[in-house]
Amino acid sequence: MKIGIVGAGAIGGTIAQKLADAGHDVKIANSRGKNAVGEFADKIGAVPSDLDEVSQDIEILIISIPYGAIASLPENLFEKLGKDAIIVDTGNYYPEIRDDRIEMLENGEVESVWVSRLIKRPVIKAFNTLLAHSLSELGCEKGKGERLVMQVAGDNEDHKRIVMTLIDQCGFDSYDVGNLAESWEMQPCSAGYCCDYTSEELKSIKEKSNQTPESIKKNRAKVMGNFAELTGGDFSHENVIRINRKYNI
Ligand SMILES: NC(=O)c1ccc[n+]([C@@H]2O[C@H](COP(=O)([O-])OP(=O)(O)OC[C@H]3O[C@@H](n4cnc5c(N)ncnc54)[C@H](OP(=O)(O)O)[C@@H]3O)[C@@H](O)[C@H]2O)c1
Q1: What is the DSSP letter of 210?
Q2: CATH architecture assignment, domain 2-182
Q3: Could you report the per-residue pLDDT of 212-226, keeping only the tens digit for each?
Q4: How many angstroms separate the CA atoms of 14 and 145, rounded?
Q5: Which of these, 52, 74, 87, 199, is most buried using a 10 Å CB contact count?
Q6: What is the pLDDT of residues 51-86, one digit of tens each?
Q7: What share of the chain in percent tops pLDDT 90?
Q8: Which residues, in sequence order, are CB contacts of 19 under 8 Å at separation 6+?
Q9: Which atom of ligand 1 is nearest to the CA of 132?
Q10: Do residues 171 and 114 touch, judged by C-beta distance below 8 A?
Q11: Rounded to the nearest whole angstrom, what is the distance from the C-alpha of residue 72 to the centroid of ligand 1?
Q12: Domains of the chain: which residue ranges?
């Protein structure tokens, strides 16, 4: 497929590499023009792009930048995107550690619903519930061993199925959370969020969970607001997963 990715960081860069390896035509851009992504794109077999070109002649646009930057994306990025193209939002809102406060999210709007409203296009939420290390190092080809699962949500079932195929090609199973309005169930510090679970494990955690949008928000404030303390300053992947499994229930 023809895929454009905005954001060449830990998540966007890794998705680009995996999808290029899987044989897709991948263009990648950040905010600083083609030259800034040239070396990385060459290394992974993608095409360096800028925001003016990245959405032209593609079937899927993956947005993988901090939430605070989404409002500053140029409008013509979406005007140039074909009307049937799929848009994927990999983002998470972290006001405790990274993002400036976004009033609508503070007032309870579901994160990807806010993104969709802002860019005036439907989106699929995916690639946001595993840590960057898990995405880059813990994928596994289907049938070759135990696989971790990624949560996915969105209103267009055809789009969702296509995104699930990409997730499969990246080495992960998919867990369908439901429509976009229900994607609060996969926001930061929700049940099973960034816990490296298999499908069965995640299903069991979700079934036992009493989470609500309000409880998840409170849990995020508690966990992210006290992360150094909770981890004892040990930010190794194993310890972060241990803490996530303890609190994201
Ligand atoms: N890291 C994780 O473990 C993880 C896991 C799941 C989901 N996520 C979510 O995925 C998103 C990306 O996270 P990340 O960890 O990949 O972030 P990151 O490593 O900081 O990379 C962010 C990328 O976005 C680009 N960018 C920033 N502002 C931009 C703009 N206005 N226009 C175009 N590109 C822009 C940056 O490049 P320039 O600044 O150079 O333009 C950079 O390439 C975030 O919403 C994050 O919450 C992260």
Answers
A1: -
A2: 3-Layer(aba) Sandwich (3.40)
A3: 999 999 999 999 999
A4: 21
A5: 87
A6: 999 999 999 999 999 999 999 999 999 999 999 999
A7: 99
A8: 3, 26, 166, 169, 170
A9: 3
A10: no
A11: 13
A12: 2-182
